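User: I'm putting together a small comparison set for a docking exercise, and I want a reference complex before I start. The sequence is below, and the ligand is zinc ion. Could you produce the 3D structure with the ligand included, as structure tokens?
Assistant: Of course. I'll restate your input first, then give the structure tokens for the complex.
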Amino acid sequence: MKTLFVTHAAALRHEMGEGHPERPDRLRAIERILEGEEFQTLAREIAPLGTREAILRVHPEVFIADIEASAPASGYAQLDGDTTMNPFTLEAALRGVGAACLAVDEVMTGRSDNAFVGMRPPGHHAERSTAMGFCFFNNAAVAARHAQSVHGAERVAIMDFDVHHGNGTQDIFWGDASVLYASTHQMPLYPGTGAANETGLYGNIVNAPLRAGDGGEAFREAMEGRILPALDAFGPDLVIISAGFDAHIRDPLGNLNLIEEDFDWATARLMDIADKYAKGRLVSVLEGGYDLQGLARSASAHIKRMMGAA
Ligand SMILES: [Zn+2]
């Protein structure tokens, strides 16, 4: 298997102030674990800047212009209670989009079997016209649209196992039958969306909320009972994972009790779907995960599985 890892140093320069959980050390922790011998065959690419054309497939011009205008020359600019820009945020966000599009290009053309986008800021809370929840541009959504517009993918599935519901991705694809958005997440929890009865205009949204305290067993039941059957019925040309690792038992922001083996298991099941319908094409995009050890170990299990080396 050729697995690609896409990142850029700009993702280490974006930070939102002392004590903020979405911090550069998250990416450093992943980078450190990828120095291990078992990752020596991982291919690497540097993230380019995302194009305006790619972002415009998801976010309106006025929203992009607003983010650009908010970018501070020094200090911080606060967009919402927990979403802040420093002078490097805009570049990091643009390269996050560029990384996701590059990963799609590589996978859709068969140059790579699958790809992991190791960038921050994350994206799944970014709605069409709202930056929120540590997110600016919705990387997974832009990747899905890029696959459709540039590579002729007809149906794209996005599966999101971050502990938080991806309200942004749901908002963007609510009325679009060509994209399936499926999510497991803790509920109630930020951002408050993601009830099972939120199904989209075409039944293309599949929410499987979990309760605080639920662990691997409930997660696997939700996957096997709701998510995987929906993915099977949908038959995607590309599988995108919104890979947040904050459902890990060590995470300070959530109360689910997943362990590395659960992320490994979910990755394997999603690869099965990709193998069955999409010639194995799978792109995984980093979202949350705020305990450095839990994040690094979970991302390691996830990427190792993608490499076929688990
Ligand atoms: Zn999260």
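The first strand starts at residue 3 and ends at 7. Residues 3-306 form a domain with the Arginase; Chain A fold (CATH 3.40.800.20).
User: Thanks, that's exactly what I needed.
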